[in-house]
Inverse folding.
């Protein structure tokens, strides 16, 4: 059996090597067909390798003498810190030793490194960052939330196709509903970009385009793939997180108001936590940067072992289902 | 004493004339210096005039034989339904009989009517819709959320100025902090529009520009005025509402899970409602369409009396403080 090789950058996240290694050990226990290439500080990695009793034959260690932090300028860091854990991990994909790479480090550097080091797949003009966002029903893929602002209509059409392929193959959604983020429901609404994109999407026979989606309806799960330009997507994604945190803070503070509310809080605590768990979405993997020659997955800076093992499962699924190959095939006709 | 005259469209909202008239009666009781011009169905208006024992000398009734509904195409409706309650109310501002107009009707028609009927004030190039959004601290003005998509940098600079003047005069915020919505905190981040706008804002001596704001931080109340292009603003505003509703729905459903959580719910209900009340924001008036020759305020379609009386207070404050005059003065140098 040929092993699925995934590169993991253990530095750059808030919790350091320890939790990344724990996540790796969990994933290795679950998937026999996966091997991991780990980049980071060798002594640290070896320490947790022993501590978590991991099978050394399934781990390749690459020592990094440098680290890219959140204070580094992304493009400069990728160019200059050649021996950083992130660059080393991305190099593994570039050189074909790994098929995917996961990092919890500097977001901008991950995006820049994905494009500059791994490179775009054949036919892909822009590589969108596409996180899953939780809704009242099933999660939706918000594509693009990345650093490629000021996209053109043809880019948005590619995002729609890549998003559909991702949702079908990774999330198992049959005939995924594709909507475009707009300021109204009718086709004549929108800015110049959206008005130009809508007729192009209507022409695509390989996607299930359902028209415009107003962002008010996103939380109802009205579409599986939400297409938008990266500036809009980034603003919405961060607002989604921000408003979520705001409500959590308000509710917590309300529950701690007095003795009566504290008793109430004790009674509802378990159920409420269970209900709101999906908004933390630790088990959904990270945000994939799509359309590259290999897969690059960005996980949150505050990720722990569960996020890491989920991201490994996500990469495995991406590779097993040959999503990159399917994207390239889908774009062949359109070039 | 010269009276402050405000035109109110009583049709087009979800709750009809009854609640609009109740809101008017409350505002008249509070403010001696305000008179109202009411447009709508005369017989209905007269009915509530009597029922709420209102002072007829302070009310002028203009009968409307037509009504613009949410199904009407905005621009067409404004052009063709000349005898609709909305067009009649806007005409009162155009003709100088009223200084402001309030409507809970078709949003697009209100925006179109404001521009086509009332018209832009001297020096104003675009008229932004600028609602206040609740945060963990004080509300922020999100400018523009309207229908004027694809704005230019010079428009965004005008929005920053108008927003500052509004927050200083209507909300009483001294030296309001102006931020621009961006995908990162640094000046080199952004799309082409934002990158072009930032240096222009840094040059403005009459505003307190604090730089880029990531939408994740909006709920923390990091800026008093949040400048953005209308497509982005509209997407964020609607998402804000949508995510709010989603959390309310999730919490309600969690609280109703079983006997234990229902008891808990009873204990926290009052406090939780009080905490979350500000997110309904019924007492903050409506969304002003700024930069017109008079003020046009759009209140939610589901507005009742409290929203109406707050919007009248908001219009009164706008007029007493001569916000339009201050905007015109601020723009004179820049033309």
């Amino acid at each position: 059996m040929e092993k699925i090789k995934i590169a993991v950058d253990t530095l750059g996240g808030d919790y350091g090597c320890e939790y990344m290694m724990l996540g790796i050990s969990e994933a290795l226990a679950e998937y026999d067909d996966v091997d991991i290439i780990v980049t980071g500080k060798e002594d640290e990695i070896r320490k947790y390798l022993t501590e978590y009793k991991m099978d050394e034959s399934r781990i390749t260690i690459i020592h990094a003498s440098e680290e890219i932090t959140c204070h580094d300028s992304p493009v400069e860091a990728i160019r200059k810190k050649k021996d950083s854990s992130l660059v080393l991990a991305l190099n593994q994909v570039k050189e074909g030793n790994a098929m995917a790479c996961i990092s919890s480090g500097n977001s901008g550097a991950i995006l820049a490194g994905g494009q500059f080091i791994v490179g775009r797949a054949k036919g892909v003009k822009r590589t969108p960052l596409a996180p899953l966002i939780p809704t009242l029903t099933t999660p939706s893929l918000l594509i693009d939330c990345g650093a490629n602002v000021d996209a053109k209509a043809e880019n948005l059409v590619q995002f729609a196709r890549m998003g559909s392929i991702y949702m079908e193959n990774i999330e198992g959604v049959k005939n995924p509903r594709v909507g475009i983020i707009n300021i109204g429901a009718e086709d004549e609404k929108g800015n110049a970009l959206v008005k130009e994109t809508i007729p192009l999407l209507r022409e695509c026979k390989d996607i299930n385009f359902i028209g415009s989606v107003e962002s008010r309806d996103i939380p109802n799960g009205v579409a599986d793939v939400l297409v938008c330009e990266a500036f809009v997507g980034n603003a919405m994604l961060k607002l989604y997180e921000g408003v979520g945190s705001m409500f959590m803070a308000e509710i917590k503070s309300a529950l701690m108001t007095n003795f009566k509310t504290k008793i109430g809080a004790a009674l509802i605590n378990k159920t409420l936590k269970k209900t709101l768990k999906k908004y933390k979405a630790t088990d959904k993997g990270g945000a994939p940067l799509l359309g590259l020659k290999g897969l690059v997955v960005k996980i949150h800076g505050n990720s722990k072992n569960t996020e890491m093992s989920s991201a490994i499962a996500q990469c495995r699924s991406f590779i097993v289902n040959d999503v990159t190959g399917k994207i390239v095939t889908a774009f062949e006709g359109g070039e």
Observations:
- Chain B has a mean pLDDT of 92.
